[in-house]
Amino acid sequence: MDLLTTLVDKGLRRELPTREEALAVLATSDDDLLDVVAAAGKVRRHWFGRRVKLNYLVNLKSGLCPEDCSYCSQRLGSTTGILKYTWLKPDEASKAAAAGLAGGAKRVCLVASGRGPTDRDVDRVAGTIKAIKDQNEGVEVCACLGLLSDGQAERLREAGADAYNHNLNTSEATYGEITTTHTYEDRVDTVQKAHAAGLSACSGLIAGMGETDEDLIDVVFSLRALDPDSVPVNFLIPVEGTPLAKEWNLTPQRCLRILAMVRFVCPDVEVRIAGGREVHLRTMQPLALNLANSIFLGDYLTTEGQAGQADLDMIADAGFEIEGTGQVTLPEHRATVGGGCGSHESAGSTGGGCGSHEGGGGVCGTAAPATPTLSEPRTDLVTVRRRGAGTDLAPNA
Ligand code: SF4
């Protein structure tokens, strides 16, 4: 396909595709899917080889959030039976982090529910970062604490944080349909604050919330403009007890097209498969490693992932290698800090891993027809987390 040849050429040059080209990736047929994966895989291998970076989530504070993000099981009014607890102590967080690092992770993502941290919370997290860094040489730490006030990003940087995650989640035009207690502009502002403080910015999206293809292109082009080092891609886990519980809109093929599109638009950025990997990609997870160069190991914030050993086996079986602490994640032209992370929950509350605070719900989409429901609900694949941080049971790593 001429389209794919063009997109590979642009990806190798870090040149932005046109919106039409990005939309065309999402519109490709199932017959063309392997060609799309192969093309985006060339771009992935050019910038990241066959390395897979493993990230590990530690939910420092779970539930009890006053915000109303529709995708999030920690939201105000959520009836999901998630674990609820307040701040883990530094040694508790460090113990949880150590399990992930022993399992092969090189980055720890420290996530806390809530609109944003108080200055006292930032001090608390600073103590946790110190505890983790003292005990684990070479570890990267990303914080994901919600909206930042002036000076807080600098304080986290001084405390040793390498990165800050805050996801845009969806397009500006539809943001108000998924959250009313803060705005899209608030989110952009926090990503910019992290950037300005010298933190590696991590910001991503949640797909499957009923958004249109145009919405997806909007948010990914907005992310490219913000220039984060890492982009977590969450696939909504429609958790019972949240407003988006019925939004089962994704198929494995759709997820692969979305990841390919993100790779073409953000070719040299750490693209991370975040929440919803097991639920929506299912047996196609190994194919997605040709598109993303980063995943979360083990469990998410409020839901359980597949066994950590299954993640490691999948990577080896697919012919990829786990990135070591001595290897630099990012291409030389952007490798100053290391990697990126980022949403509060995209990866964690519903799914996966940081940056938006939660990551998975779904409303939106008014301009163009919404993507039709294509998949059967797979509630059998969704398990609320009952182990690891905040429990007496060993974490999954
Ligand atoms: S995503 Fe973050 S801010 Fe939004 S409801 Fe969940 S925990 Fe609260």
Quick overview:
35% of the residues lie in helices and 12% in strands.
What does this molecule look like?
This protein has 397 residues and is of the alpha/beta class. It has one domain (2-381): TIM Barrel (Alpha-Beta Barrel). The protein has 13 helices and 10 strands. The protein has helices spanning 2-13, 19-26, 33-48, 90-102, 119-135, 152-158, 175-178, 184-196, 213-226, 252-265, 277-281, 285-288, 308-317; strands at residues 51-61, 107-112, 140-144, 163-165, 200-202, 205-207, 230-235, 270-273, 294-296, 321-322. Strands 1, 2, 3, 4, 5, 6, 7, 8, 9 and 10 form a 10-stranded parallel sheet that branches. Helix 2 (19-26) packs across helix 9 and helix 2 runs antiparallel to helix 10 (252-265). Iron/sulfur cluster is lined by residues 65, 67, 69, 72, 74-75, 113, 115, 146, 344-345, 349, 356-358.
